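re: ur question from earlier - yeah i can do the single chain one, its not a big deal. heres the input i used so u can compare w yours
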Amino acid sequence: MHMADGFISPAVGCTMWAASAAITTLCARKVRQEKEMRLVPLMGVLGAFIFACQMLNFTIPGTGSSGHLGGGLILAVLLGPYAGFLVMAAILTVQALFFADGGLLALGCNIFNMGFFSCLVAYPFIYRPLAGTKTGTGRITLASVIAAVIGLQMGAFSVVLETTASGISALPFAQFVELMLPIHLAIGAVEGLATAAVVIFISKAQPSLLRPADLETGTVKKASWTVLGIFAVAALLCGAALSWFASAYPDGLEWSVAGVTGSEETRLAEPSPLHRNLETVQEATAIMPDYAFPADDGANTAETEASSSIVNPETSMAGVLGSAIIAAIIFAAGFLFGRKPHSHCPRCPSPCHCLRTPRSNSARWIGFPAEIPASTVWTPALKSELSSSIKSAFFPGLRRKLRGSCLSSCSRSVSSAWRAFPWATF
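and the output i got, formated as tokens:
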């Protein structure tokens, strides 16, 4: 369901870009506020796994069409709706930039259609109430299939609305809907079963990874090395080997377009300057368009026959390279944006000594200058209260050091306390 730029007008494309950017910013803030940065390793591995799975098109019997796993619901179930949306946005961006899968102008539409409905609508409002708090196989399967079907139906209908609102393609609304919704109903059923299989496996391997009922206050667990390794191996296997057996039939969107217009692609007679500029950018950034190296004009017959065989090294390289790029981007983003900012004291130069933890006490010392405004008047009563808090926190540790007859430890304790409380303020 990757839309090309030929479906979208500049007005609709820019509007959906703005909407997707706003949702991405909101999700990034929620992930950081809820302290979900410990999920970064699982986010990177799952991103690589979903990218590889999207290369595995499966045939829909009796239709001459194919479909592939979207993966948004899997990401939402295992990572939560906000982190799942971010991973889906990263996958679609890598596909558009490096593999020319989906247009750059239509990237906002693709993120919204494949990420928003599955992660932020189908998961919290359909899957979560149906699955409940128990991890029974039947409930997981039922919730996965219903949520995947409804999420994909909303995404397919959104494609029709965006195309019709653009008004630049010969795709009548009624005929387009009649083909898009039924074909994606079948694709959604298969995706629901695949989602249920993954979730059931996690419920057996590491049940703590399944999201709690309370999405706002539930504890976020780290994935075990076993789970990370299994998903990493599965990503390599799908991208490097199983992708050879992907169906050659057009996907649901291409099949629907061909059913209306007689052609799988929609090309504009007079593309706008924005269409041409973004097409130029995509040609420059795409290292493997359509998951293959750009074809040379002097390609001989032997190369053509070799490319038609089942074993396709180009497809394997594209699967492994794309998975590695997505994992690297997610790991880098987690490292850059997941670090806690260093706290600074307004009265101390960087680094601030007021927030250091003395070695003589396991508790964290909170520096008074960092919490008390500079305009505070140090009355005798306030000084006495401060002195009492210092004695209760520092001297028990000092006495333990004295009992150990370690003069150097005592000196470090005194030095730490001196740095922690700037006596010059008195």
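DSSP finds 15 helices and two strands in the chain. not sure if urs matches, ping me
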